[in-house]
Amino acid sequence: MSETPRFEPHLWTERSVEETLSVYKNWAASYDEYIAARGYRTPARIANMLTRFLPAQHGPVLDYGCGTGVSGEALANVGIGPLHGTDISQEMIAVAESKGVYERLWKSEPEEAPARAGDYAAIVAAGVISVGAAPPETVPLLTSCLAPGGLLVFSFNDPTLADGRFDACLQSTINDGTVAQVARETGPHLENSGMNADVILLRRL
Asked: Which domain holds residue 18?
């Protein structure tokens, strides 16, 4: 079994893209078991929030930073689909593919737009935009991929909220008038480790 990185302080520290890729390459085989033991609740919370706002008739939903497909499974469990997924780690994508919940999967490049505006009814990013992973600017990057009415649902965990830069970038994105914040709820992230996260839903104007 691959060596699993420690959550504190290894994951939520600034590092290069190359270092991040190395972390997830070594973690892919044991990732699901590890986060399940720590009570990873954010994917289900995101899926449940999306069901409250996603129109009954909608196009495909993009799981950005899909990892091993844990978030895709949560979306499929509440009847959301078809699903597409993308991640920067080919090793994580290989695990996601084995779960059979995605219509399409591909490897993306860091900080590049994953889609054209209007390709997706909604984009989700569970546990992706955080210290040590995708940077704050990912919020406006993903909102730029939405047509008017499109939804973005993502999370900020406790270390990310404490950082301050992520909320500042979110507020700047709201202030520029392209999106509105529709919902924001605090709840468990890694429940068994005592870590919370805010789940946030934006709508493109």
From this structure: 7-204
